[in-house]
Amino acid sequence: MKMTKILLTGLLALSTVTLSKMEYTGDKYLGKEVITNLDVADLESGKVYEFYFQGVENSLGRPWYIPVTVIKGENAGKKFLINSGVHGNELNPILTSYKVKENLNPKNVNGTVTIVHGMNVSGLLNNTRGYKFGGNSESTSDLNRQMDAGKTSVADQKYSTLTWQNLLSKNADKVIDLHTSGKGSEFPLFVYADFRNSEIKKMAELTGADVVKLDSGEKGSVETSFVDIGVPSITFELGASETQQADIVARAVDGVLNNLIDSKNLIGKEIKTSKDTFYGNSWSRVRAEKGGYVENKVKIMDNVKEGDLMFIQYDSFGNIVQEYKSPNSGVVVSIKDYPYSEPGDSLGRVIEYDAKEKEQVLKK
Ligand SMILES: [Zn+2]
After folding, report:
1. CA 86 to centroid of ligand 1, rounded, Å
2. 128 C-alpha vs ligand 1 centroid, how far in Å?
3. Do both 337 and 194 map to the same domain?
4. Cα of 143 to ligand 1 centre, how many Å?
5. How far is the CA of 13 from the centre of ligand 1 (A)?
6. CA-to-CA separations, 266 to 114, 175, 270, in angstroms, rounded
7. What pLDDT digit, counting tens, does each position of 59-100 carry?
8. Would you say residue 192 lies in a domain?
């Protein structure tokens, strides 16, 4: 009897160890608990948590700390993850992450909603898209191409691998990764979604985006790394980088909340989004062929026909050196808004629905 009791106690202790997966350093940073591993299943229900996730050390020998909120509802439910700032110069997503959080509390949330408020701390600090290496290095590295690569020899690799393995990958049944267009160009409210998966299609529809691109993904991105492990995920592009756009942020918040409501992570009624969404599966890029100032003759979301004038390029004296026409008929989905351009620069993209496309098909 006694032996059984000892054995049982031992087994219980052992099972507690295997189940308990939150890892705390024991330190606090700016009043918040510092963690090296997040497992939302291991957190007590009915609370809001604000942690600093301790990532890689920077060149001063101090860790990068990633701010992460977990809202764990009083009632059970699924795990929803909202990530922002894997690209450090994309700032509408950070504000969106704060405003989504304002709508959530343990009483109206079921299960857990985890919000990462700016994953690429080094990029955010330096206003760079990629992870900015320390010391005297001028280099950056795109974390959103190597999330699940599992490499750890260089700082950027270690950063993405640690974040993927210990912060993101285990805490999600559904994921929205928030982005913007690249530096010097603009998107509307725009979604990349892999329509081979019907749950992902539904997620995209719930965003109320201006344009959804049916897209098979980008290896190593947050979105595709999740899709590859069977977790439905979309990339949600919120306008332009390096700025804040109130209208875009407000609509993005609605799009995220709609997804939380649909997945039953948030108690509430679906928010009506007034916009008509354009669904495309193919786009063509217009690239500069010469150097010089480019004047835009079209706007985001304009409908264009093949051959319509899109851009005019001038030489240093104001003489027209090149005209750029639309390569296809569709919707203008991205525009370079920084005027000076050299050969090869992307000036804009026109998206269309190509019925001949086999992989990404619009199913009703
Ligand atoms: Zn991005």
Report:
1. 7
2. 11
3. no
4. 10
5. 44
6. 13, 14, 10
7. 999 999 999 999 999 999 999 999 999 999 999 999 999 999
8. yes
In a domain, 292, yes or no: yes
Secondary structure tally for the chain: helices H, strands E:
7, 22
Write out the residue range of the structural domain in which residue 95 sits: 22-262
| Domain final residue pick, 204, 230, 262 | 262
Position 189 in a domain: yes
pTM: 0.93
Chain CA centroid to CA 303, Å = 27
Work out the pLDDT band at 20, boundaries 50, 70, 90. Answer: low
Q: Which of 40, 50, 48, 49 is closest to 77 using CA atoms?
A: 40
Q: What is the pLDDT of residues 55-69, one digit of tens each?
A: 899 999 999 999 999
Tokens of 207: 């965003």
In the reported structure, the alpha carbon of residue 291 is separated from the centroid of ligand 1 by a whole-number distance in angstroms of 26
Report CA(121)–ligand 1 centroid distance (Å).
14
CATH number, residue 328: 2.40.50.100
Q: How many domains does the chain fold into?
A: 2
Same domain, 254 and 177: yes
User: From the CA of 93, how far away is ligand 1's center (Å)?
Assistant: 9
How deeply is 61 buried, as exposed, middle or buried, from its count of CB atoms within 10 A (0-12, 13-18, 19+)?
exposed
Shared domain check, 240 and 110 = yes
Same domain flag for 86 and 129: yes
What is the distance in A from the centroid of ligand 1 to the CA of 15? 41
Cα–ligand 1 centroid distance for 84 (angstroms)? 9
Helix (H, G, I), strand (E, B) or coil at 323: strand
74 assigned to some structural domain: yes
Q: Which among 229, 262, 295 is the end of a domain?
A: 262
Angle between helices 92-102 and 246-262 (to 10 degrees): 50
CA of 235 to the centre of ligand 1 (A): 9
